[in-house]
Amino acid sequence: MNSQLFEAIEHLEKDKGIDKEVLLDALEAALVSAYKKNFKSATNVRVDIDPEAEKMRIFSRKEVVSDDSIENEQQEIALSDAKEIDPNYELEDIIEVEVTPKDFGRIAAQAAKQVVTQRVREAERGVIYEEFIDREEDVMTGIIQRKDHRFVYVHLGKIEAKLAESEQMPTDEYNIHDRLKVYVTKVENTTKGPQIFISRSHPGLLKRLFEMEVPEIFDGVVEIKSIAREAGDRSKISVHATNPDVDPVGACVGHNGQRVQAIVDELKGEKIDIVEWSNDPVEYVTNALSPAKVIDVIVDQEEMATTVIVPDYQLSLAIGKRGQNARLAAKLTGWKIDIKSETNAREEGLVIEENIIEDDLLENIEDIDDERLFQ
Fold it and tell me: Which residue, 300, 292, 306, 294, is CA-closest to 236?
């Protein structure tokens, strides 16, 4: 019976990846419990486990006390009796006497099974928790296992993660057995075991996808400064290159748009505006309102607010459908943004510095031949 127990421990270590010492500690606790229960003993006992010899022994532990002060014979021994065992014993010494029953291997196996199973389960949970706690704020690929009115359950290899309704993308279709990239938002170690919470709508998913698709971001040459996201619809991301020779927007877009398109495909068609970050709020807000063209930006540093003036025909584009473009730009930059048409701005007496020339105006000028231009 002892041999079978130790073989089972070796198997669990290899099969489950659980440290043998954890299992042996569980077995020790189980043996102490089994001894006290089966032999109705209140004695302090110690278990000695020898995996090499495949032996288990039980020792009764008693404290040496003076002959006239014994209160618990199961836990104490008189000094005179201790001297008969070994003359060197003194007061407060601990005497250990082997009390292993002949059939204890069988009893121990039966009694220890439930306790060891519980400890093994706890150890397995600990291994899973330690593995997944390192994956917080990371992207993982899982397979949809099932779903109900609250969660989509995604299998991540060793555990099932929960994708709450609030973390789902409205453009996603969650079909059983589909593969899905998810962002790990939180890992908790609960009494029921590790709980993994994931998201498809978190801005962190967009950040990690860019890190995966754009080597310059992964290498640190291009830095993601900020992300504003309305999942499934539209996002804005600002980037900055530490190397002045690197175009951060171009690196993220990729040749013929291949890099950003791979991310758009993963996010089921979510539109992504990639803009260049700037320490200058005028330039940064201008970039953030892309694709709208901006005439001027008036900055109020104290209120962290800006008044943005755009051509009349660009007003709707700058604000965006249901105010989305302006809302995302404000979230991206951290500045309040009040957008005014050029006509309204002039009516309100705002001083406009026309420091940004329209791209389409430049194109029109280039189409005019030199002779007509200088007549």
Answer: 292
Q: What are phi and psi of 279, to 5 degrees?
A: -75, -15
Yes or no: say if 314 and 361 are a contact pair by the CB < 8 Å rule: no
pLDDT by residue (tens digit) across 61-118?
888 888 888 887 778 888 888 888 888 888 988 888 788 877 776 766 676 677 677 7
Domain assignment present for residue 282? The answer is no
Decide: helix, strand or coil at residue 192. coil
Residues in the chain: 375
- Taking the CA atoms of residue 26, residue 29, residue 33 and residue 35 in that order, the dihedral angle to the nearest 10 degrees is 100
Q: CA 53, 105, 34, 94 torsion: positive or negative? A: negative
Indicate whether 44 belongs to any domain: yes
AA identity, residue 350: L
Give the other-Cβ count within 10 Å of 146's Cβ. 12
Distance CA 291, CA 203 (A): 21
DSSP codes, 267-291: TTT-EEEEEE--SSHHHHHHHHTTT
Domain boundary among 101, 132, 163: 132
Q: Strands across the sheet with 305-310, in order?
A: 296-300, 305-310, 336-341
- Tens digits of per-residue pLDDT, 129-149? 988 999 999 999 999 999 998
